[in-house]
Amino acid sequence: MTPSSSPGDVPPSGSGSTPTSGASPNTSSRATSPALVCHGAQVPAVYGLLKGRKTACFPPITGDMENAGATVIDAPDVVDGNLVSCRGWPDMPQFGRAMMELFSKSVNSASA
Q: 97 and 81 in contact (C-beta within 8 Å)?
């Protein structure tokens, strides 16, 4: 952001930036581990990134996630490839273990 710009301004053409809060259609193929907690699944859903993916979410937004093409699993931790999600803060212990397991696999495969 330049000193004269404001949050939400559209960057000039060719600047290499996009006004999309960092979401990328390539998220599922990159070496990242998106973590979705509670209503967090709404962000990738808006960009079409949950179509065909499994996710957990806060129960009242289940219909929204299904309409976005996701398969909602009612569980404290759902792992679908590099995507880890949970329903909300009460699921943090299981969610944390799932994230650590995913990170461990990532580190082990990178060092092999």
A: no
Annotated catalytic residue within 34, 36, 37, 38: 38
Single-letter code of the amino acid located at 84: V
Domain coordinates in residue numbering, the chain: 35-111
Look up 39 and say whether it is catalytic. Answer: yes
CB-CB neighbours of 99 under 10 Å: 17
Active site residue 8: no
Model confidence pLDDT, tens digit, residues 32-47:
678 999 999 999 999 9
* CATH 3.40.50.620 is right for the domain spanning 35-111: no
Token duo for residue 108: 């082990």
Active-site entry in 5, 11, 32, 39: 39
| pTM above threshold 0.70 | no
